[in-house]
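Exercise 7.
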Amino acid sequence: MKNSAQYAWWLLILLFSLVIVANVSLFWYLFFTPSSTSLSAANQRVAVDFLSRYLLLMRSSGVGTSAREATLKELNRALDESYAPYEATLYRALLEAVFETDNPKRTLALLGDLPSEQLTPAQRRWQAMRWQSLFRQPLPTAQLTELLDTLETPSPIARRLAEIALYQRAGDSARASEIRQSLVSRVLLSAIVLGVLFLVVGILGLAGVGLLIWYFVNRPVLPLRPAPDESPFVYDPLLWALVIFLMVMLYLPTVRWWVGNLEGVELLYLVAVLLPLVFLYSLRHSPDALGNLRWFEGSWSKQIGAGFVGFAMYLPVLVGLVWVVTRLMPALPAEQVNPIGERIGGAMSRWEWMWLFVQAAVLAPIVEEFVFRGVLFKVLWQRTGRVWLSAFVSGYLFAVIHPQFLGGILPLTAFGTVAAMLYAHTRSLLPCIVLHALNNGGLMLMLWAYAG
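Solution. The predicted structure, written as tokens, is:
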């Protein structure tokens, strides 16, 4: 294994080069594709669904008319910015029917002549005719679900709004009220979760500003190398774990873009997660390789506390970089997102959400911290003796393997750098795993709250 480590270096250079070239090529292809939706529009669609459910909550809570009108105005603006005219008009008609703000029949009369993002002209005209007939003719309650299954709606929430409006028209007020109350209950829980998240993140972020100032003023001294008395090549055999991870990950674009199977993408990622751990287990009797990889160092409370400190220090950096990314969003294609983000855009069961949470907040932190901080960063640091350079390079390479690439390159590079420096100070992977789990878990909770 030691003698073959030099090949691992060349393989890593090749694999990372392929990932970077593939991501850049994909970005430019999507950038120049006329039908490509911008990343800002894709995020606006999540906001449209959230505001629609929020309006239901406001109405059921008896919030004043002026506040509801202001929210509806913002919702209409987001509709025009995020959807093609056909989808935006259909969504607006459903909102008018549910909230009784205008005449949905008059709005639906425009559908047939409006350009659509997903439908061909023939499909658009047929769908428009079907929607118009649903709002004009008597409706058989027993067949409403079957009728809706033949029609396309802009989003799962728009589908639920259509059910409310049509059950109300069919005279089944109890069923319409049941669906409405279900959406209200979910958005109420979402609002509570978001409130708690923002409160916790705000407190930790303010603490993080103070911690960052303290850190750069005091500049804690770090050793030149993680193992100063060892050869610079001592950690090189562990690079094979990263090679295994990358070789499996390189198949993800094939599954994602050619097959279009998100379940297949998740299965392949699970394989990429497990194989490096199997490799680690195979080295359990090799003290030269495994003995230098430290998962735990010190007491549990100190390690977990260090993870929270690292997360607090990362938050101010994240806020600044997210602001930069939001300025770039109109130029970024929406298709270049993480597969988890794609799954969130559709209807998902509770168990699917739980599985995604386990993937993002448990499996990914364990394996990605092992291969990028426990292996790559430590190898670079041992080889060069320059901790900040090694932290930045490993952070950047950590960022480029993520599918969102240019949309997430800045915050992910910063995250990888902070995690590497946390490892350098603690010499333990557990604080890095805690940091990673807090970041991904908080993001998943926020996405769940917005997407419902």
